[in-house]
Amino acid sequence: MAQLEDDSILRCEACGAENARDAETCRGCGRALESDDEDDDEDDADDAPAATATEAGTKDDGGGKRGEWRGILVIGAVFSLVLAAWFLWNPPKPGQAPGASTPASNDTAPAVPKPDNEVKEIELAGDVVWVGTSKGLFAHDRKTGAVTQSIDAASGAPHDFIDSLLVDKGGALWAGGYGGGAGVFDGTKWTKFEPSTTGNQTVVQIFQDHAGIYWLATAGAGLFRFDGKTWTAYTRQNGLPSDEVNAIAEDADGALWLGTSDGVVRFADGKMKVYRPSDGLANSKVLAVAIDKQGVKWFGTWGSGISRFDGSSWRTFAALPEGPRSPFVVSARADGQGRVWFGTHDGVAMVDGATWTHYTSAEGLLGSDVYAIEIDADGNKWFGTYRGVSRLDSENQWKQFPH
Ligand SMILES: [Zn+2]
Known about the structure:
Layout: E1 4-6, E2 9-11, E3 18-20, H1 49-53, H2 70-89, E4 119-125, E5 128-133, E6 136-141, E7 147-151, E8 162-167, E9 173-177, E10 182-185, E11 190-192, H3 195-198, E12 203-208, E13 214-218, E14 223-226, E15 231-234, E16 245-250, E17 256-260, E18 263-268, E19 271-275, E20 286-291, E21 297-301, E22 306-309, E23 314-317, E24 329-334, E25 340-344, E26 347-352, E27 355-359, E28 372-375, E29 381-385, E30 388-392, E31 398-402
Antiparallel strand pairs: 1-2, 2-3, 4-5, 5-6, 6-7, 8-9, 9-10, 10-11, 12-13, 13-14, 14-15, 16-17, 17-18, 18-19, 20-21, 21-22, 22-23, 24-25, 25-26, 26-27, 28-29, 29-30, 30-31
Bound molecules: zinc ion.
Zinc ion binds near residues 14 and 15.
């Protein structure tokens, strides 16, 4: 497959994600990637098997030549069984990077950035841009882009792989790690939450609601509520449809909207209402949630595009021209002008009323996978990719903050 994009990158044809050239499976959708160094030539009869092993609507890109040699089919079948078994045992998680749990060195500027040096979260605090990556936590100066501080597990962060960040109402920085629970940084020291509190799971989002309550979404241990003293866990045992909670947003009525791996949950007054594909949601695996200025809810799904819910009816935007360039939608933010910005495995899609606008590396993104979006008080949009952060200002000018 023609997945080559540049010397160091393989782009997945199924989801658009950019992968390390030596990667065997796509970190975006879990599909098998072909090594271009070995038996590529013109022989394309492969990698359809992986589509059956991945979940959630991965589209087969078709075109597999039929009537190839029987030997290739047998090898393909065996390969797909092995792959399916591997995925059953170890299902791919969105954003999971190969080798993510191995301790990383704390260099801040690798000579050749690799796709696993992913920006997972951006958080703004005055003139500081906190950037959480798969290789540590960095403070950038908002104007110059210079790194003013770098923090890794050795200096107290919950993990070298930072998956979530929050600057809370009191100004403290919360960070959630990849399998390392969460911690709070007051500027000089870290307080870590014991693994038993967060289940030692990857904390994928940390959110503070209008009442100041903290909510931590985890990739396997459900949702945690923390009022400053007491932790409360919400899991499948007490009403969540899935223990994988991928995203949290709050509406104007104070209801939480959760994107989980088995539908959307509206959570208010202790009651959960679940929305699934049978209700109109495009895909049960929801990775991103945003609520726009009019109160409309938007959900980014894993493999089926974007669903919109106005409180009574659902509509899905799955592909171009009305919808994202990639159906794998991994981040979302609403701005103050009624627009919603989505990060996908193939750039950023922005919807303004009925109009969709797309941004890729041709416009100014440093990389095509956009796991993090943040919008500051001046209306600047900050996008996180594996090559670093790109900023789009309100005059449509781009500035890059590479690793
Ligand atoms: Zn992929």
